[in-house]
Write a structure and sequence with these properties.
mainly alpha; Cytochrome Bc1 Complex, Chain D, domain 2; two-stranded antiparallel sheet; binds heme C
């Protein structure tokens, strides 16, 4: 018995030593903060575009805080994780990081001092970036104003907060390596896939995650819940009545609005604002890639029928004009959301065509009714007002149920009022 115990203990010790060696990464020696003039202006400009399309500022800027100074809170199922200061401040930022240290962080998720980074930082996507693109990002960040802002403490409980354990997570879920082009596809497709899978990490929101927070490999872009919103599937399971094609994808991704689909609201708003910095050819490449992911070719041809259905379902006189729900909708929404015989007007999205009304989950529709769409999202110069103050939960539920019943042939959403109350309790998210 004693011998067995000693054996088990010895095994544990050997295992622990083995894991420690396995998890260990060397530190990079701190460098003197590089002079901004040591970087070529073209490289800095290219880095600025890449930083925009990788939304570095969205995650690395706290509400009302200085750009890239960190402190932005991300609620996860394990606790709140705060982004860090990536300005070139020597003490609290990445000023003393060499380019090699920065590259290792982007490609392998390891901090300058050798500690493992958490996958709330999407290094599992950034690992696909070319060395050249990472160098441009480094040049851009190192030429930004240095801000002194110490890191916030994460609220992840012990023992999950032990960074060495991340080595185990990486072993299970992380596939390091640069993007490898698919020779069977066009150069445009591969450029789109490179941006989508790497820098712009579309799957970070649109791919469902497993219990340990990793994206499910077999379900790329199958749709997922994120920040009290739903990122719809981008595969052929997408519920839009008009199938997304390359033209509409390109318009939506670069302007945040599409006449056949609606507005990029919530967490998608910052995405389209970030992508807008990309050259037109890159937007087209992303659109070509996602037209293929969504199987636009075989689904093409549904547009005319979807438009005809949308027009006919928009009429008030469908026997529901005296129903309280129809009256509420007419008074609150129809002054802006009506359509005529021609092409849909992107400035007042046709709700029959909108994914929010067609998804299995009413979350996005409830979000938009409660909190509206701010001026910075979607079409410039128009806003969707917030109805959360004037409407009770029952009012919001009634309008959502009415739209679902009159605009789609899909089953009614269950427990709408409960869902409205839950989303209201969370407050506005995804900005
Ligand atoms: C989805 C949110 C998110 C996005 C987008 C994001 N980051 Fe981060 N990043 C984080 C979080 C959270 C951390 C801290 C992780 C930790 O503490 O382990 C982090 C850490 C880092 C670090 C390590 C810094 C340190 O001091 O430990 C670097 C470098 C970094 N990010 C660079 C970038 C760059 C460059 C981009 C844009 C291309 C970017 N990040 C985009 C969330 C994000
Ligand atoms: C931060 C999370 C996040 C990221 C990153 C993200 N999306 Fe989204 N996306 C969303 C959410 C949430 C919605 C729903 C927005 C709405 O209802 O207005 C959405 C909506 C969309 C839609 C509209 C779908 C529909 O049927 O209405 C498309 C297309 C889309 N995203 C493509 C992309 C692409 C391409 C990328 C990468 C370049 C991307 N998304 C990155 C969260 C994200
Ligand atoms: C004052 C005009 C106005 C009123 C009233 C209005 N909307 Fe909107 N709505 C808009 C505009 C404008 C947009 C597009 C926003 C943009 O592009 O910035 C929009 C967008 C939407 C979207 C699309 C969201 C997306 O993610 O694509 C939905 C859904 C919506 N409205 C529902 C409603 C409902 C339901 C009501 C009534 C409770 C309503 N709206 C009342 C102006 C209005």
């Amino acid at each position: 018995m004693k011998r067995l115990l000693i054996g088990v203990a010895a095994l544990l010790v050997v295992g622990l030593i083995g894991f420690t060696i396995f998890a260990w990464r060397p530190a990079f020696i701190p460098i003197a903060v590089p002079a901004p003039t040591s970087f070529a202006p073209e490289q800095v400009a290219r880095g600025a575009v890449l930083a925009s399309a990788g939304y570095c500022a969205s995650c690395h800027t706290a509400k009302g805080g200085k750009a890239f100074a960190g402190g932005y809170a991300m609620a996860t199922q394990f606790g709140t994780i705060y982004s860090t200061n990536i300005t070139p401040d020597a003490d609290t930022g990445i000023g003393t990081w060499s380019e090699a240290a920065f590259k290792r962080a982007m490609h392998e998720g390891v901090r300058r001092d050798g500690a493992h980074l958490l996958p709330a930082f999407p290094y599992d996507h950034f690992t696909k970036l070319t060395d050249d693109d990472v160098a441009a990002l480094y040049a851009f960040l190192m030429t930004q104003p240095a801000v002194s802002a110490p890191a916030h403490r994460n609220t992840i409980p012990f023992p999950l907060n032990i960074r060495a354990l991340q080595a185990g997570w990486k072993l299970l879920f992380f596939h390091p390596g640069r993007y490898r082009p698919d020779p069977a596809k066009s150069a445009e497709w591969n450029r789109g896939a490179y941006l989508a899978q790497g820098l712009s990490h579309c799957g970070a929101c649109h791919t469902p995650r497993g219990a340990l927070g990793a994206e499910k490999s077999g379900q790329m872009y199958a749709g997922a819940a994120i920040d009290n919103w739903v990122a719809p599937p981008l595969t052929k399971a997408n519920p839009s009545p008009v199938p997304w094609d390359q033209v509409e994808l390109a318009t939506y991704l670069s302007t945040g609005i599409s006449r056949y689909h609606g507005t990029a609201a919530g967490p998608m708003g910052q995405v389209t604002r970030g992508l807008a910095a990309l050259p037109a050819a890159d937007i087209q490449a992303l659109a070509a890639y996602f037209a293929d992911v969504g199987d636009a070719k075989t689904r093409a041809g549904g547009t005319a029928a979807a438009l005809a259905h949308a027009r006919s379902s928009d009429r008030i006189g469908v026997g529901l004009q005296y129903a309280p729900a129809a009256r509420l909708y007419t008074a609150a929404c129809a002054s802006c959301h009506y359509n005529g015989p021609g092409e849909p007007n992107p400035l007042r999205p046709d709700l029959a065509l909108n994914s929010a009304v067609n998804l299995d989950d009413p979350t996005n529709l409830i979000q938009v009714i409660l909190y509206g769409i701010s001026a910075k999202d979607g079409a410039p110069g128009v806003v969707m007002p917030a109805f959360g103050r004037g409407f009770t939960d029952a009012d919001v539920a009634r309008i959502a149920a009415y739209l679902r019943a009159t605009r789609t042939a899909k089953p009614a959403w269950p427990d709408l009022a409960t869902k409205v109350a839950a989303i209201r309790a969370q407050g506005r998210t995804g900005e």
